[in-house]
Design brief:
Elements lengths: L9 H33 L3 H9 L1 H28 L2 H29 L3 H4 L7 H12 L2 H16 L4 H21 L2 E5 L2 E6 L3 H25 L5 H4 L5 H33 L3 H13 L5 H19 L3 H35 L5 H15 L2 H17 L3 H25 L4 H25 L3 H5 L4
Antiparallel strand pairs: 1-2
Helix pairs in contact: 1-8, 1-13, 2-6, 2-12, 3-4, 3-7, 3-11, 3-13, 4-7, 6-9, 7-9, 8-9, 11-17, 12-15, 13-14, 13-16, 14-15, 14-16, 15-18, 16-18, 17-18
Amino acid sequence: MKIRIPFRLRPEFQNILRLAWPAVLEEALATVVIYADAAMVGALGPDASAAVGLTGTVNWLILTVLRAFGAGVLAVCAQADGAGDEPLLKKAAQQALYLVATCGLVLSVACLAVSPHIAGWLNGAPEIRADAGAYFAIVSLPMLLRASQLILSSVLRGVSDMKTPMRIGLMTNALNIVLNFFLIYPVRTVGSVTVWGAGLGVRGAAWATAVSIAAGGLLTLYKYLMHPRFAFRTTGFRFDAGVMRRCLAVGLPMAFERAVVFTGHIVYASTVARLGVIPFAAHTIALQAEEAFYIPGFGLQSAAATLAGNAVGERNGKKLDRVAKNVSLLASGVMLVCGLVLVLVAPGLMRLFTPDETVVALGASVLRIVALSEPVYGMLIILEGVFNGMGETRAPMVYGTLTMWGIRVLGTVLCIGVFGFGLKAAWVCMVLDNVVRAVLLLARYLGGKWRPRILGTNG
């Protein structure tokens, strides 16, 4: 039985997929590295997995704050592209370099300053604190270049160039895996061949990540400077306060929301860490394992943000509604399939990362809990992308703050600290956070109070 897409929708779906597939592939490649890191470090034992995972939430906080500022530039670039306003497009692209320098330097100083203390603040077990602190410090060293890759990639996506970030991701992720192979393990014999290894363990994984981040940042900077749409050789780099304010009007609320939400993630992770090394290792590995099942959603999110920005630039409300509807349905449908697959493969997936059967059993049980919410989470991811592309980031900021702290953090603190429940209860709180936030964002979009302000009309 063939599933037919109505003819009038085919060009739109083709455009969505044209923009989405490089981002999907880029997310897939990044997930391969996450899997490889987790598997290679997991072979060292639960302590090593817990040491790397302890500061993982803080690293995600940093990544999402940088992506938030990138989203601000993406929104202005996409809207300018949709409106055919080339001068605004070039000015917005120029402001990105100022954001890279500012964010990269501030975060570098902050991360290196807290690295000796962060493992203790996060309630890490005494036996993993030294490795956890060293891992965080090493991966923070190339922070300026990490800002370059994340923010400047968003600028490229703002002009529908999805392939350049994908290609850079392919190269840097391959580099990370190769360096892991040589830096984590000591000299060893594979078959009849002696393979050199630095034997650095957790620190080896950190150096592999740091070097690949630096390479990705430099390559992205080069592609950004040479991009023909921006014509930097003729325009130069001029700070424009008005255009910067437009970028920050989108980026700052999103960055604040990400900071508040991921601070909640940190409190959430530190609360789970109180359960001990084995439950926390299962928690950390399960979070890494489920990354693969978010790939379609996050890949489609980039397309949704760019297309929504284009529609707003054109002042075309009907086109914006079609983008929101079509991409949400596509993401939810694909992630429904992903959730069903996750239910079936959860134990085998955990065994890719650890040989400890206690960790495998506990991790598989929480993966099956989160699998049920995959379609709703897919809709949440797309709605966030649509709101970002529209430049409407205040409502997601409020909703994200309320659900993270009111449902996930408070619920987990009560479940673990007061009622004595285990890891499964913490993951139920995480699922409820995502579901409620998705419902709130959907209600906000359908309510339409933002339309006159964003589109200039009621349509």
